[in-house]
Amino acid sequence: MAKETKSKKRAKKNKANSPKSKVHKLKTKNSKKEESKKAESCQKLVKKSPARQRTDDTIFIVAGESGVRVVNFLGDKKNVSEFVIADKLKLDMQTIRNTLYKLHTHNIASYIRKKDRQKGWYISYWTFNKKRIKEIIVNMRNMHLEKLRERLEKEEANKGVFFICPKACARLDFDQATEFEYKCPECGTLLHQQENLRTIEHLKEKIKEIECCS
Questions:
Q1: What mean pLDDT do residues 196-213 have?
Q2: Kind of pairing, strands 109-115 and 122-128?
Q3: What are 126's strand-pairing partners?
Q4: Residue 160 gets which letter from DSSP?
Q5: Alpha-carbon distance 45 to 64, whole Å?
Q6: Is the pTM value of this prediction over 0.85?
Q7: Do 90 and 83 contact (CB within 8 A), yes or no?
Q8: How far is Cα 124 from Cα 54, in angstroms, rounded to an integer?
Q9: CATH number among 1.20.120.520, 3.40.225.10, 1.10.10.10, 1.20.1110.10, domain 50-128
Q10: Which DSSP state fits 180?
Q11: Tens of pLDDT along 133-182?
């Protein structure tokens, strides 16, 4: 019986190490990878709602791609350890802490500190402040509108008297062009007069678009 058992074990081992078995394992491994890639692709194809997209865009401006990932991970969770965030997102602690403090600067994320009884150091536990996002979106939109209106005012005040470098180095108004004797301050090329009616129309459309969405 002992010899028969050893013989069966040897046969199973040989079968497992056979070329056919290795090919089957490789196909299974590749199949799992393909399934994983398909799942990731499907997630990317899922369209975000306009509100979610605005939130992600705002967070990206404040804290970059890592900020978007952190906020999406936190979601509705409360008091999540900075170490758990780093582990789940596969990011180093320095990146996580820099990102979290950027979010905290804008009050997008808040934290509490607790002392670890075993290790003796303090750990930060983080929560996403959803209400703050709406305020930031409104503030950023108002700032953007103000800049567009200021630029529109300048474009209309200098209608037809802008000068541009043919190499696209610089764009100057009449007073600036006169100061540089109608030569590009960057490369010295003679400036060309530019018609700015299209720029004015574009600015008006952009302002109207933002105002309609507010």
A1: 88
A2: antiparallel
A3: 80, 111
A4: T
A5: 21
A6: no
A7: no
A8: 28
A9: 1.10.10.10
A10: T
A11: 888 888 888 999 999 999 999 888 888 888 999 998 999 988 899 999 99
